[in-house]
Amino acid sequence: QGQLVESGGGLVQAGGSLRLSCAASGRTFTKPAMGWFRQAPGKEREFVAAISWGGSTAYADFVKGRFRISRDNAENTVYLQMADLKPEDTALYYCAAAPAITDFNTGLWGQGTQVTVSS
Q: Do the beta carbons of residue 38 and residue 48 sit within 8 Å?
C-alpha cells in the first residue's frame, strides 16, 4: 500500500509564498498523475492543480498565474509553488495520486497540510 505525505504548509501573510511538497512511498500507481486539492472550513474539497507523469499540467482558474505544480519522478515527489497568496487560499491542502488525471476520486490521498494566509 502506498502512502503520500504532504509538507510545507504554514502561516503566511497575504502576498507571501509557500512551497508544498508531497512525497510518495510504497506501491502507488505506474507512472501516476499527481494532483493538489484543497478544502476550506465549511466548503467542499476543490481541485487546485494536477500534473501527468509526462509533465502536462492543469490548473484551477483561481490559481492560474500564482501557483505552479511540478514533479520530480526520480524522487517520487510533487511540488506546489504558491505565490501571491490570498486569505481565501486558506485551506487544508491535499496531495493525490491516480493512474490518470481523471481518476483522483478513486486514487491515493495524503493527510493534508494546513495553509493559513493572514490579511
A: yes
